[in-house]
Write a sequence for this structure.
DNA sequence: TATTGTTATACTCTATAACTATA
DNA sequence: TATAGTTATAGAGTATAACAATA
């Protein structure tokens, strides 16, 4: 039998869990023609009408350079609109079509969430989220 | 204040924790001229002299198509050697140079591991690993 | 027929640098 | 000076298909 010390390490377990959850969700989001990061952005706008790109970046820990093309696509597809708030930033809002996608995306994420929680023994379920929240990158 | 429901979801927390740990480790592994996946493979060979690529793939949940170029590079750099076991598979072994890299990599991973655990409140530490191990992808 | 390994390729996400325009 | 947004580009990881050689 193969001896794999990585199996006893949190870092590796997190990595594998992340790819497994992504692999789970991606095909479903794909039916909405959305990527994972698209869905995150849409959901954030759904809950924060008028949010700006820089606020999205800080909330989701994404570099603004990576948000720009996402917003561009969502805008071009008619899922969001950009409303200027001052000369350099725009408040983002969902169109009706965008709201539906955001809500469906959120439902998909919640469904994946429930599926994941169900796999975790009940006694261990409660602490996991809080534990992992402490591992977020130090925000600059 | 921004309302971010993703913050209360395991999937998102796992994702952020994974990228944070990767961002932590990558620069250190880079000093050894290794990527994360290189390190994983080297560590697995360190603990399993003579392991084959297909066994590595099953242990690390990597597609064989993605392992091939890694092995190729490690071989070309003189970190591993391939010893034929039958006509189609090779047993992999570390060279002396490779063993040192593997051990240093493992130390780096263990150090990152300790750093991560330290961030998690003591009461929550114990269950996290076991909880996450249940989220691995279903092996085909 | 199934398995091992390889090549080629595409997709997604992340990171950095350089830039414009505005505050 | 600092912030918001954009463009371009590179790096890393993952996924699939197609293939040759071997079991």
């Amino acid at each position: 039998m193969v001896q794999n010390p990585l199996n006893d390490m949190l870092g590796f377990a997190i990595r594998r869990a992340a790819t497994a959850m992504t692999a789970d969700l991606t095909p479903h989001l794909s039916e909405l023609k959305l990527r994972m990061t698209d869905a995150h952005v849409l959901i954030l706008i759904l809950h924060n009408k008028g949010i700006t790109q820089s606020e999205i970046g800080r909330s989701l820990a994404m570099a603004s350079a990576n948000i720009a093309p996402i917003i561009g696509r969502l805008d071009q597809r008619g899922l969001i609109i950009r409303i200027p708030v001052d000369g350099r930033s725009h408040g983002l809002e969902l169109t009706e079509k965008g709201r539906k996608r955001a809500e469906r995306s959120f439902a998909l994420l919640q469904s994946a969430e429930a599926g994941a929680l169900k796999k975790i023994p009940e006694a261990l379920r409660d602490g996991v989220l809080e534990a992992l929240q402490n591992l977020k990158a130090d925000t600059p």
Notes: The mean pLDDT of chain A is 97.
